[in-house]
Every structure is written in structure tokens, then in C-alpha cells.
Amino acid sequence: MNAPLPDPAIITSPPPRLNFDAGRRPAITIRGLCKRFGDAPLYQDFDLDIPAGRFISIFGPNGCGKSTLINLISGLIPIDGGEILFDGRPVRDVTIGYVFQNYRDALFPWLSARQNIEYPLTVRGLPPAQRQARVDELIAQFEVGFDLGRKPYELSGGQQQLVSILRALAPRPEVMFLDEPFSALDYEMTLFIRERLQSVFQQTGVTMLLVSHDLEEAVYLADHLLLLTKRPTRVADIVDVGAPRPRNDATLIDPDFIATKARSLAIFQREVRR
Ligand SMILES: Nc1ncnc2c1ncn2[C@@H]1O[C@H](COP(=O)(O)OP(=O)(O)O)[C@@H](O)[C@H]1O
Ligand SMILES: [Mg+2]
Fold it and tell me: Is the whole-model pTM more than 0.85?
């Protein structure tokens, strides 16, 4: 149980800072973003404004750069040129949460589920009582019913991804990044976590950037659906989704919702065929 924590300096650079201004909701401004892998430009003079406190779903052709875009915004990979600012701040001054597609590689296998969730609080130097209180709050919010003393390998895939999401939420992020977080989950778990995510969004107003390969899901969760083109990648369109929250099964058969989905699909197909 007392496995040593990894040296924080290895994991986070620059050093983590205490930033618990819950409710801070920066708008994100992307100007002249350039990114290339080898000779092929992926993003070239790319501009985008992401409004504060909104749920943005990102959808586009395979390999168009959806994951790369959120990796660039979140600072996981460096930009080649341009500027990305959060209400004027660089990403290193922003508390972010990131949920990876592959939860198996994302959790620390030598830590219990609870220690994994506490991890971002541990590296920030939060005392044990405060860490525990925050995790207990998340457990209640997500109605976690399984034993968080277990190691990741003792949990189902859905439980592991839930732990990843709770870990991302633990430091009360200002912006959450989610890269196809449901793609490895069974349908029942997908529905459950989707609802919880929606309720976290409604409760906290945290800016959410979700990459999804499921158009219905992308529209269902989004305030704004960002549709990308094939590479070199541009914004194909931004579709506003006005359906009231909380959205539920009835939303899926609402004529306005169906029309929005159809419009998004038409834009996507136009871009894929181009
Ligand atoms: N580290 C990398 N090195 C070289 N090419 C990469 C790297 N990461 C992504 N790419 C390429 O950039 C493009 C966009 O990748 P990605 O953002 O993962 O696409 P998406 O998430 O939209 O499917 C793809 O063609 C991919 O092969
Ligand atoms: Mg991807």
C-alpha cells in the first residue's frame, strides 16, 4: 500500500502550483496555430475561439488531428507556431484535467484507485485530510460503488475509466480534455458515465473539450460541435446545439436534435468526400 509515488518532477514540468479557484472558466483563444509532423503540415495558421464554460465536442475524419488539437491546447505536445491562451494565460498557469482514450496506460498500476484519484492533489502538496475529503466528494457525486482500495488491474474497464475521470476532476480543473473516453467501454457504462459527465458539467460549468467518433454522442453532449476538415485541418463548421439540459433519452428523438445531427452529418460527409 505504501508504494512510493513517482517523483513529481518527472511527471509535471514546470512544478505544479496550487490553483483551486473553482469556477474559473477561461475562454481559449487559438491564433495562427501551426503543427507539422515530418513534412506534412497538420495545422497551418489555424484560428479558433473556444467560449468559456461550454461543452465542445470535436468531430472529424479519421486522422484529421482531433487528438493532436486537444494535445496542443492542453500542452501535452508542443506547438510549432502561433499562440494558445486561456483568458490571456498560458496553459502552464491553468488547472486542466485530461482523460485519455486508453485508460489502461493512463492509471498508475502500483497505486490503488483512491491513490490514483488523489494523485494530482498529492503532487500539489495537499494534506491527506483534504485529499480524502475531495475524493469522498467525487465518490458521492459519481455514486462509486466499488472498492477504491483495489489496484487498477482488479477493476473492470469501465471502473478504470471512471477512476481516470475522477482523477482528472480531483483538482477542480478549469478545463477538461477528453479523448474518446468512452471508446473502450461497454454501452451500459458509456451511458452511465456520459450522464455523470453531463451533470458535472452542469454543476461546475467547467469548459469541456471532448473528442468523439460517435456523432450522436458528440451532438448529445455538446453546446457547440466543432467539425474539422481533412488535413491540412481547418474548421469545417461549428454547429450550435440548443437542446435544453439535462439531456436524456427524449432528447435523442427530439426533431430539433435529429435535424442538428443530420446537418452535422451532411457537413462531415461533404468534408470526407472533398
Ligand atoms: N507523434 C506523431 N508523429 C507523427 N505523426 C503523427 C503524430 N501524432 C499524430 N500524427 C499524425 O497526425 C495526424 C492526426 O493524428 P490524430 O490527431 O491522432 O488524429 P485523430 O485523433 O483525428 O484521428 C495523423 O495523420 C497522424 O498519423
Ligand atoms: Mg484521435
Answer: yes
